[in-house]
Specification:
Elements lengths: L2 H27 L16 E5 L2 E4 H27 L3 H28 L9 H12 L4 H28 L3 H22 L18
Antiparallel strand pairs: 1-2
Helix pairs in contact: 2-3, 2-4, 2-5, 3-6, 4-5, 5-6
Amino acid sequence: MDGTNRIKAVELLLVAAFLVVATVAIIVILPKAAPASGAAGGEPEVIKQTASGPLTTADQDFLFKIRQAGLWEIPSGNMAQTKSNNQKVKEVGRILAADHQKLDEQVLALAAQLGVVLPSEPSESQKQWLAEETAAAPGEEFDRVFANRLRLAHGNVFATIAQVRAGTRNDQIRAFAETANSFVLKHMRLLESTGLVDHSQLPQPPAPAK
C-alpha cells in the first residue's frame, strides 16, 4: 500500500470512529421513554378494566381509605356514648357511627362488584388514635381527643376524595366519591359544631401554584 492509500485508509478509520462516538453520545443524551403505565407522568396505574371503566391504583386506594375510616370511626362513635359527658359529643359520635356503618356497607358492596379485596383492620395511625381515645380520661379529655383526631382524619380523606372525584375514569368510583364526599363534609361540620376542634393544629392549605 503506497503513502496515498495509507492516508486514505487512516482518514476512513477516523471518520468511522467519529460516527461511532457520535452515535453513542446521541443515545446517552436522548431522554428515556416513559413507562407504559404512565407512572413517570404521575398518573396512577390501571389495575384492571371493568364494566364501568378502568380501575386504577388511586381508585383502589380511595376504597381502602373509606373502608378503614369505618373500621376506626364506628368504634370511636360508640366509645363516645360511654366516655363522654357532653350530650353534643355523644350525638355527634352516634351520627358518625351510624353514617359510617351505611358507608361501610356501600364500599363493601362496590368492592365486591369491582373485585377489590378491602382491608380488615384500621391503618397503624388509626389504631394509635383509637388507643389515644381508649387511654383518655372520661369526660373533657376524651372529648378533646375524639373531636380533634376525627376532624384531622376527615380532613385528610376529604382531599383524597376530591382528587379521585375530579380525575377517575371509572363511573362507579365517581358516583361513590360523591356519596363519600357528602358524608365526610357533614362529619367535619358536626365535629366543628362541638366547639372542641383546634383549627390551629390542622394542616395548612397548600400554597397557590405560581
